[in-house]
Amino acid sequence: MSENERRTGDSRRSPLRVLIAADTFAPDVNGAARFAERLAAGLVERGHDVHVVAPASSRRHGTWTETHEGQRMTVHRLYSWRWFPHDWLRFALPWRSRKNAARILDAVKPDVVHSQSFLVVGRGMTIEAARRGIRVVATNHLMPENLLEFTLLPRFVQEPAVKTMWRDARKILSLASAVTTPTRRAADFLERSAGRNDVHAISCGIDASLYHPVFEKRTENRIIFVGRITGEKQIDVLIKAFSRLDESLDAKLEIIGGGDQKRNLEALAQQLGVADRVTFTGYVTDEQLKTAYSRATVLAMPSIAELQSIVTMEAMATALPVVAANAMALPHLVHDGENGYLFTPGDEHELAARLTDVLTLDEKQLEAMKRASLRMIRPHDIQNTLTTFESLYRGEAVIDPVTDVSDVSDDERRGR
């Protein structure tokens, strides 16, 4: 099959009208928003009629055409409120969720609804689509536990709140014809938590051709972190580990992203005496991010709550080794000693040791890790993801794409 055929799908089949229901979407900057944007653009490129329903990113709301990833699509922006405990999050009003869903479904008449969460927008769309006999595919990017730091709920009610959210998730996901999440480990977790035994593991996918691997001899030891500057990312552990690195390494740490913990982490870097070697870059453009990956030596990902980590995939596509917490889906991407190292979550001493391991590799060993990242990201091709979702949209049986290179043959490892 040619590259053009892979990107446009099977032209002999009728295009679909797909409605993507998302509680977070561009210009929001997080994994779920990035996946929904890439999915929508990829489907448009394949000839499908795509509608996205998401909270308005400002007070302006309504329906209009937007361009994402170079593709034009219809976006229905719902009236939203700013959630001030979070640095940018806006949410559609829960008590309008089903009314909004009914109005948009009756106007658009989609062939399928692809929900990106079981919360406000996804919840309303799933319920109303099921009532109308419209097929629902649900993808979960969310662990309710991660929302707690933004709810302002006291600790003694957080555990009951999480249980309540999972009960509601079980009810909403039971209405979907198919349920997916990005990795097998995340799928196993979701099956235990939501009471389904048929969750598909489908990678969010990445277009690796957009990233630029660098194999020139390194001129500095630069560690990079990319993501929201929030508690579950455990960036404090990274800064503490960084402060333990031998000064002879002359390492620098670049933290890219925004969030509510930025001031606290800047203060921590100052307290530990490393503020002059830690840069908080804030939000950056896609091109600036690609440049940042290219100048880095290693990605550090200390987060304990990644259901896949698009950032890690982007870094691997840039041929970076990764030092990651041995938690949730990260071991699916990072194979210890092959394309990076894993460390015990929260252990700053072990993280410092593993970062030192990468930073002290000779050039030949470092190149081997970089090439391992490129090899291991290859099965996560976004075109495989799009093809699998097209089949799910049509109600066809699918075999989850193989994305763990431990399951790939030797010939495939060699790119044959």
From TrEMBL:
Keyword Transcription among record annotations: no
Cross-referenced Gene3D superfamilies: Glycogen Phosphorylase B
Keyword Transferase assigned: yes
UniProt keyword annotations, A-Z: Glycosyltransferase, Transferase
InterPro entries: Glyco_trans_1, Glyco_trans_4-like_N, Glycosyltransferase_grp1
GO process terms (BP): carbohydrate derivative biosynthetic process
Protein name, entry field: D-inositol 3-phosphate glycosyltransferase
Domain Glycosyltransferase subfamily 4-like N-terminal: residue ranges: 29-209
Coiled coil: none
Organism this protein belongs to: Paramicrobacterium agarici
Glycosyl transferase family domain segment(s): 217-371
Domain of life assignment: Bacteria
Gene Ontology molecular function: any one: glycosyltransferase activity
